């Protein structure tokens, strides 16, 4: 049986690591773990501990470490930059992109973006990305940034090996044909109300190629997940795009 994986927010101490908070509740109530149960514990910073539960208390579970594995943080190869959208849809977008192993999510505030941002949203997205490590078995979560205006995103995309913007009027260009090995790939997805003409012009002037994935108009979250899957399939990376 596969080891159950849990997240710790505390450093290891000696030959022990600790599970607390919601993870402890999940361990005890959902998984019904007992002393001696074998588990995996990750810290979201490249460390994987394997071990057995030594004790279960009301406030923490103590895991005796039997093995350790450290993975270095992978180079950024894929950045998805979607418009900020409504909370539930944004949560789905973050969850699926994080499960797929997208390196970065950089939300953008366009003129037609109709959702207001608050710092609590970023904390929720980061929690979702961390939980995705239980699914995809990676050791580093998708990095998620606070939303920025379009010009700021463009200013931070200068070293990208490929710059893509999804639009229904774009061409069906080949992704491998656009991508040049080296640097990362950044893909911009607009808001439900579409880009303004001047926003499209600004992207084009800064080297973004318009790509059309579908004959119809896709929701922002659908388009983001779709282009991420296509990029995962086509773009080479030294460690294999689906793993770390």
Describe the structure.
With 244 residues, this protein is an alpha/beta fold. It folds into two domains: 4-70, Ribosomal Protein L25, Chain P (Beta Barrel); 78-234, SPOUT methyltransferase, trefoil knot domain (Alpha/beta knot), CATH 3.40.1280.10. 31% of the residues lie in helices and 26% in strands. It has eight helices and 13 strands. The chain has a six-stranded parallel beta sheet. It has a five-stranded mixed beta sheet with strand order 1-3-4-5-2. A two-stranded parallel sheet has the order 8-10. It is elongated and about 60 Å long.
Oligomer: single chain
Order of helices and strands: EEHEEEEHEEHHEEHEHEHEH
Unreliable residue stretches? 239-244
| CATH architecture grouping of the largest domain | 3-Layer(aba) Sandwich
State the name of the first-level CATH class of the largest domain: Alpha Beta
- Terminus-to-terminus distance: 22 Å
The CATH H-level superfamily of the largest domain is: SPOUT methyltransferase, trefoil knot domain
| Strands, total number | 13
CATH topology of the largest domain: Alpha/beta knot
Count, helices: 8
Task: Give the overall average pLDDT.
Answer: 90
User: Approximately how much beta-strand content do the residues carry?
Assistant: 25-35%
Helicity, in percent?
25-40%
Q: What is the general shape?
A: elongated
Main sheet properties: 6 strands, parallel
Number of domains: 2
